[in-house]
Each structure stands twice: as C-alpha cells, then as structure tokens.
Specification:
- There is one protein chain.
- By secondary structure, the chain is of the alpha/beta class.
- Helix content is 55%, strand content 8%.
- It has helices at residues 3-29, 41-51, 61-71, 92-106, 139-155, 158-176, 191-203, 209-226, 241-244, 271-283, 302-314, 324-353, 358-370, and strands at 231-234, 250-254, 257-265, 288-293, 318-322.
- Strand 4, helix 11 and strand 5 form a beta-alpha-beta unit.
- The protein is elongated.
Length: 371
C-alpha cells in the first residue's frame, strides 16, 4: 500500500474504534437514541435488511462504505473500485478487508465471518449502483444498499453520514445478542428423531457447510466411541483440497497417519471427481476413501465409476460410495442413545469451530430446541 492508503486505513480503524465505543456505551447504559428514528424508519429497516442479507458479502458493504464517507467526505460511498468512472472513486476493498473484517472477527463474526467479502462475485463491479443490478442474484437487497448510499450522497452532510453510521453500529450491536448461539442438546434422542433432524438441517442450501459439519461430527462420535481414529480434520468449505493440503473434505487419522478420507457431495458423483480423489489418495498412499453423496453416482458415469472402483481394489485401494443417510443410520444404531446425544453436541461444536454462518448455527440450535 502507498503511504496515503496506509494513513486512510489507520484513520478508518481509529474512527470505527472510537465511534463503536461511544455507541456501545450508550446502548449498554440504556440512553442510546436511534439517530434515524422516527423520521427515517424505512432507512433503518434497509440497514437491518442489508446487515442480515442472505448474500453474505452485502453485510459488509454499509459498514465499509459509510465508514469511508465519514472519514473522507470527498469519496463517493457508492464506489467499490478506484476504476469507478465517477468523481470520488476509491478502492473500498482495502478498508473492508483491513478494517471491517478484523472488526467482524473480534465481534463473534456477527456479519458472517467472511475473510475477503469484497472479492466475492456480488461485489466484483465498480460501484453499488443500478447500473450493475442485472449481474446481482439478490437484487432486492442490492436495491436496499443503493437506497442507503443514495441518501448519504444526496444529503451531503457529515451529520447525516455519521447518523447513518451510528445506526449501522447500533444494529450490529443488537445482532450480537443472537450470535452467541447456545446449543440445547437433549438428554436423550431416538434414532428416528436424529435422522429427521439431520435430514432437515442438511436439506437447506449451505454450499456444503451443513453436510460437512454433520459428517465431521459423526466421525468424531465414531472416534470417541470406538477409538478407530484419534483426530478428525475438516478443511474449510470451498477451499480446494490441493490448496488446503488435504486429500478430501474430511481426514480421519490415527497416530498421525491418515487412515480414511471422506469426500462429501450434495450432488451426484462423476467419473472426473472419482479419478481426482483416487489419484490423490494413491499418491499419498491412503488406501481407504469414502464418498458420501446424496444423489449417488452420476447415471451416465455409473458403469465407468463402478469399473474403476473394482479395478482399484486390485491395486490395494478401497473406495466406497454411499449416501450419508444410509451410512449414518447404521453408525447411529451402534452408537446407541448416549452416542447419538454426543453426536448432536459435536455438530454444534463443529459449526462453531469452523465459524459457520450464523444462519446455519441458529438453524441447528433451533432444531435441538424443538426436540
């Protein structure tokens, strides 16, 4: 970074720190007055919707863009990139990643725990304006972001900008109450109840996070009950195996040696995917690999996949394909009631350990509460 950029980052950090302290102190003392209420209730509602958007990247936009406007009124708060073709264009990504992301991490990942929200597809455009609406999947929340930033720019006063920022901070603080998730694990649970909970939880879209968390928890329960493994490792969702250094989504180890690889798929297993995992496992001399795939083997690839698995056995490599439901049912029977309760507890622990999105953590807590 240039000296100017470094200075701007430090100024933003200091402004955020001081303003956060003031807002939090006022809220905790019960004397905070929402600066946008009652006159701008709709604007406040837009802010809340953006901070809790289903599109995780959007949650970082208002804290970042309005913070920058507070520190330097000459910038255009719509701007995401320095290449934006309007006066006041600047690189907001630097502030997002060096100021707001650390703040989010220190605040229990209240915004979602994204390490680099501004490099994700929704924000790969020059500015938050109607011009780039068509490339957004979540256009309703994109419009909300525009509406808030339009007010900031059209008003053009430092007082209004600070009021909007203070409202953003107040809403973030209020969200914190729901981030510290408690997992009310039941004292007893039947096999049918456990299977139903898992099916409902993993049925929602999560980019694989929910399925991998449940799978990891199951193998932790196996390790605890039967001693087949002493370490269960899971890589971050959406991180390539080659990048993470792992051979699959989950590695089960015993005395430091990988004894089983587990690949979790919410789609059908293809020949290309099978080849990649088997070749990687062979290179690392790992003879056991389990594919847990909800849609089974791809119909068009089934004969080829089955033949490859058969041939691999002759070379000393065992590959297994099953749905998680089929695989887990037998395991959960063997674990017994106490083991199933432990498994449910492990799911919550894994969601916390991995920093899963708050929506997934709350969903699991709610399922536990309803049993």
């Amino acid at each position: 970074m240039t000296e100017k950029e470094t200075t701007f980052v430090e100024q933003c950090k200091e402004f955020l720190r001081s303003e956060w302290e003031v807002v939090v102190a006022s809220l905790e003392a019960g004397v905070f007055c929402d600066p946008l209420l009652p006159e701008n209730e709709a604007l406040r509602d837009h802010i809340v919707a953006c901070l809790t958007s289903q599109t995780k990247s959007y949650r970082y936009v208002l804290p970042t863009q309005v913070l920058c406007k507070c520190v330097d009124p000459s910038v255009d708060s719509h701007s995401l990139q320095a290449g934006y073709d309007q006066p006041g264009a600047f690189d907001a990504r630097t502030i997002a990643h060096k100021v707001i992301v650390p703040f989010d991490q220190e605040s229990h990942r209240v915004l979602g725990g994204s390490p680099e929200p501004y490099v994700n597809n929704p924000l790969r455009c020059p500015a938050v304006t109607a011009r780039y609406r068509t490339q957004q999947k979540n256009r309703e929340d994109w419009d909300r972001l525009i509406a808030v930033l339009d007010v900031v720019e059209e008003a053009g006063t430092e007082e209004l900008t600070r009021n909007v920022f203070d409202q953003i901070l107040a809403e973030i603080y209020r969200l914190l109450a729901g981030v510290r998730v408690a997992y009310p694990t039941p004292n007893r649970i039947s096999l049918a109840q456990t299977m139903d909970m898992v099916k409902e939880f993993t049925g929602a879209r999560s980019g694989g996070d929910r399925a991998e968390a449940v799978c990891t928890a199951l193998f932790r329960a196996i390790a605890c009950e039967f001693g087949l493994f002493d370490e269960i490792l899971r890589q971050k969702v959406n991180v390539a195996d080659s990048t993470s250094g792992m051979g699959a989504d989950v590695e089960c180890r015993l005395h430091g040696v990988v004894v089983l690889l587990v690949e979790v798929k919410d789609r059908a297993l293809t020949m290309t995917q099978l080849d990649s995992k088997l070749d990687g496992a062979r290179a690392r001399r790992i003879s056991e690999i389990l594919f847990l795939v909800e849609q089974g083997i791809s119909r068009e690839d089934r004969p080829e996949v089955q033949e490859r698995i058969k041939n691999e056995f002759g070379s000393g490599q065992n590959a297994y394909v099953s749905s998680f439901e089929d695989f887990s049912r037998g395991v959960l029977i063997l674990l017994g009631e106490k083991g199933r309760v432990r498994f449910l507890s492990f799911v919550g622990e894994e969601l916390e350990r991995a920093g899963s999105d708050i929506t997934h953590r709350r969903a699991w807590a709610q399922l536990l509460k309803s049993t």
